[in-house]
């Protein structure tokens, strides 16, 4: 393998392991790999450089990511097809491109460093900016609208389940009081309010106290979990036999969804009590990772964003017979 050379400031997470896991499916001439989350194009660039006979179809719902990564991948010419799409649209994208099956699919979930770094996108709690958080600003509703219009019970549910925020109720009580006075528009007021709502002890640990609320709002604004729930089965369905899928998650709910889909595919689906499992009930996936793989300490020391990463992968071993 040639050594991929990503730009140092945006190091792709668990890159070497992703390449090793997908590699055996990508070495054949004519192989097609999908990067479902192009972002800054770090993983994509490495895939193209490492597997020179491979074609790449790259998706991102953020037009700014397509623009930036498009320039980065320009040297690979017509080996790259970049498409503005939400990743659960993968089957439609492949149908449009006339590609019935692919040999690899990579998901690197969540936000890119570019999205976090651009203050006016509203993802970062460290700078005052409009509370937007949409990965595609041409559709959907902003984080400010969620905060200003959702019923309190719904906000508590979102902060608890998507942010694992123990003080969800306290924060939402404060939000509801404040929004009646004046609707939220920018992030600093929300950060300040969270700081005031949390007990002293909670503020001493776990970094910025607004972090969990911001993550929860982002997941809600972008409908991240329902989209992922459709996308992973769709990606498995698009794999040719021998094709491989790898998914990097950064949140326990994402990882659980991925685990469930891959584990279900790797189990047989025969009714209980059959002495022999007939072909149509045999598993269609083989797991390539034991549980979720984690980044090494060295990687985390170099790249904080890698710390929560969980990597799972599987190989398609059978066609659907049903
Ligand atoms: C963590 S970044 C990917 C970084 C990339 N692997 C790299 O090495 O530069 C995730 C990207 O996926 C995109 N994204 C997130 N959810 C998406 C979805 N449902 N459909 C399409 N793109 C999505 C985001 O806009 C972001 O650009």
UniProtKB/TrEMBL annotation:
S-adenosyl-L-methionine binds at residues 41-43, 60, 87, 108, 115. It is an enzyme of class 2 (transferase). This is Ribosomal RNA small subunit methyltransferase H. One of its GO terms (biological process) is rRNA base methylation. Its EC number is 2.1.1.199. One of its GO terms (cellular component) is cytoplasm. It is found in: Cytoplasm. NCBIfam families: 16S rRNA (cytosine(1402)-N(4))-methyltransferase RsmH. Gene3D superfamilies: Putative methyltransferase TM0872, insert domain, Vaccinia Virus protein VP39. Transmembrane segments: none annotated. The keyword Membrane does not apply. It comes from Actinacidiphila guanduensis. Keywords: Cytoplasm, Methyltransferase, rRNA processing, S-adenosyl-L-methionine, Transferase. PANTHER family: 12S RRNA N4-METHYLCYTIDINE METHYLTRANSFERASE, S-ADENOSYL-METHYLTRANSFERASE MRAW. It comes from the Bacteria. Belongs to the methyltransferase superfamily. RsmH family. Specifically methylates the N4 position of cytidine in position 1402 (C1402) of 16S rRNA. SUPFAM superfamilies: Putative methyltransferase TM0872, insert domain, S-adenosyl-L-methionine-dependent methyltransferases. InterPro entries: RsmH, SAM-dep_MeTrfase_MraW_recog, SAM-dependent_MTases_sf. It catalyses: cytidine(1402) in 16S rRNA + S-adenosyl-L-methionine = N(4)-methylcytidine(1402) in 16S rRNA + S-adenosyl-L-homocysteine + H(+). It holds the Pfam family Methyltransf_5. The keyword tRNA-binding does not apply. GO terms for molecular function: rRNA (cytosine-N4-)-methyltransferase activity.
